């Protein structure tokens, strides 16, 4: 009975003493854990080059790791009474020596740390959203002179390593704030409006044409969207031009509508159907300009839009791609236009006197099932008539019957394809008057 009274008196004494400690703490500076607790309970706005990105408290809480432990601390007085302390520690030595320890000397400790691997992943994801490519100035030919119609724009790239350091430092040391600026780097465009006079763009060096007569509305729409990507594009001397790189993403978010494309062993609807009309026209302009073709593939079967057969170029992100090299001494400026149902690519630059001869295309084999083989030759000579290059382009086309259209053998769908939403199907039917 006396033992219990003394025990309760000790408990009251320590409770009273603990209360005094709390009262005194209110006048002291907040601890690291108190400060961190406030930081992780509120959203944080991250600023990158004037743009703001919200870092939510929910995301921050995922980065926090807390580890708790119990320890016997001689001279420490606590309310914790734990007769199972040694079982918690899982130690035989503890069991042998704990009898000599005071059960009121058990102290609970809590260590809070940041999971920097999760923070690093967040910064990488943020960079993919915040990074912006530099945009070169775009030009046009007007009254025989080159002028800018699109100004150059600087790009930005988030410095991921330093941004991670800033975030870690903020949560470990920094004062409480609702905004935090992250370091980034400016990316300077390669071509600006001041460089136009030094580009040597003086004349038309080649042209490509194709006709999309009979195309459905969605296909025409996609041709116009894709064509606009290339109007005003400049190709540096010695640069290998990639059609897919300039094209970028092909989906509904980038302005394309669903239309038929040749894919694997069938013809099926997909966003961007009709883009090959654009790549085919660009290919013909490069051929007629006497440029070196470094990558080109023909379509799987003959397509009427690309007559004459044998001078087409199919593309699909990320491959196959259409590539050619600007092996002239100056810049090449691409100009595009649509006249009626004819698509035109004009290449402007400075002639180095080269002479280009295109022999063909001609059909060398044609079968009853529609399959065929074609060929044409590009011969390029310098200003003195010396042969620079002679490239032969052979194309082999399968029978169109091997690539059935969904719902019907015509170019218009009659059934909603799998994977299409009701809205996509409605838009398609409206475009085709169904």
Describe this structure in words.
The protein is α+β, with helices and mostly antiparallel strands. It has three domains: 32-63 and 115-188, Ubiquitin-like (UB roll) (Roll); 66-112, no CATH class; 199-431, no CATH class. Helix content is 27%, strand content 30%. It has eleven helices and 21 strands.
How are the SSEs placed, and which strands pair?
Blueprint: H1 2-25, H2 32-40, E1 44-48, E2 51-55, H3 57-62, E3 64-72, H4 85-89, H5 92-97, E4 106-114, H6 116-130, E5 138-142, E6 145-150, E7 155-158, H7 160-172, E8 179-181, E9 184-187, E10 203-211, H8 217-228, E11 234-235, E12 240-242, H9 243-247, E13 258-263, E14 266-271, H10 275-288, E15 292-295, E16 323-325, E17 332-339, E18 342-349, E19 355-366, E20 372-381, E21 387-397, H11 422-431
